[in-house]
């Protein structure tokens, strides 16, 4: 049974840029039972617009009869602060003003996220994490955590992520924020502000999540067709879908969080930071990923002592880490046999 809870940190929470949140709430789920010596913790970090229930979006890896089975493991996943699904975000009420933060919500980095997760870890009296998993934005979180608390993380599995967000990735995110900014409603103090712009932002993002081959296969056009293409419908559908389930403030916050990622910041650079990781580490890339190309995962593995890199051949692009469950489970099993 999945248990959803709220952890409330009632003291001011200092952010990396020097700003403060007056208080902090984290929405999180647990799945399974913590064993007597608390050695069976699997902590999952979700991606960009994901939520705190990994069985929703990683059902091929997490759940009954899956690689990470709640009958065996105690699975924890937290909604990232700034996100839409229960943790403190721009639509939350600022206790100092009595009104939602809206555009005044502070800038959060990946490092801020992990500082908040550490607070929850200590609250739950968890001293070690058997497996730390994350893909994309979640992978950035997991890697940052493995650097910050090397004695706590035993095994770390990273999917389709990087050690520092690339200029290419920043450019995609900035293009999406430009779409939101150009929505005339964006400056309004309303939960609905910027939603039309966010629809366009999501359409831009999809081009980086998939690729030329994927669109040719899934959104193919009929011979002789001159208008009303499948690709038209698909882009609009995905925009409407995100509009129904998310808000533009969170989208903006998390896109900036993406850009902030740099495990080498104030640590002497990426290479020096990766040397701090003590967890047994597996890094998985997707061959056709154009947003987080496999070379980025390869570089992570090269920098971490005894880490292994494995590339999965897939045409699904960046979204492959949310689709290629069978290949990923096999890769994990093979890696574990080598440990």
From TrEMBL:
It catalyses: L-homoserine + acetyl-CoA = O-acetyl-L-homoserine + CoA. Homodimer. GO terms for molecular function: homoserine O-acetyltransferase activity. PANTHER family: HOMOSERINE O-ACETYLTRANSFERASE (PTHR32268). It comes from Lacihabitans lacunae. Substrate binds at residues 202, 319. Its main location: cytoplasm. The lineage of its organism: Bacteria, Pseudomonadati, Bacteroidota, Cytophagia, Cytophagales. This is Homoserine O-acetyltransferase. It is found in: Cytoplasm.
């Amino acid at each position: 049974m999945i248990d959803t809870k709220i952890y409330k940190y009632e003291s001011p929470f200092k952010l990396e840029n020097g700003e403060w949140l007056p208080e902090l709430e984290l929405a999180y789920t647990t799945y399974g039972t913590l064993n007597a010596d608390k050695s069976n913790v699997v902590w999952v970090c979700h991606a960009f617009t994901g939520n705190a229930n990994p069985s929703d979006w990683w059902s091929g890896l997490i759940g009954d009869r899956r690689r990470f089975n709640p009958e065996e493991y105690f699975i924890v996943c937290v909604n990232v602060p700034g996100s839409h699904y229960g943790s403190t975000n721009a639509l939350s009420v600022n206790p100092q003003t009595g009104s939602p933060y809206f555009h005044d919500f502070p800038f959060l980095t990946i490092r801020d996220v992990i500082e908040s997760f550490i607070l929850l870890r200590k609250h739950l009296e968890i001293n070690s994490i058997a497996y730390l998993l994350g893909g994309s934005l979640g992978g950035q979180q997991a890697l940052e955590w493995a650097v910050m608390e090397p004695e706590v993380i035993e095994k770390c599995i990273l999917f389709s992520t990087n050690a520092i967000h690339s200029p290419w990735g920043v450019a995609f995110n900035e293009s999406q924020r430009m779409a939101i900014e150009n929505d005339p409603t964006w400056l309004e103090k309303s939960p609905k502000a910027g939603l039309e712009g966010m629809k366009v932002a999501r359409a831009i993002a999809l081009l980086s999540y998939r690729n030329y081959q994927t669109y040719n296969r899934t959104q193919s056009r009929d011979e002789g067709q001159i208008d009303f293409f499948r690709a038209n419908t698909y882009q609009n559908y995905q925009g409407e879908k995100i509009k129904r389930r998310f808000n533009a403030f969170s989208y903006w916050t998390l896109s900036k969080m993406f850009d902030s990622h740099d495990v080498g910041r104030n640590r002497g650079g990426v290479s020096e930071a990766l040397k701090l990781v003590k967890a047994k580490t597996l890094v998985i890339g997707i061959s056709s990923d154009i947003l987080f190309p496999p070379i980025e995962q390869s570089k992570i593995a090269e920098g971490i002592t005894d880490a292994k890199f494995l590339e999965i051949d897939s045409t699904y692009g960046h979204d492959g880490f949310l689709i290629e469950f069978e290949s990923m489970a096999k890769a994990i099993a093979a890696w574990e046999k080598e440990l």
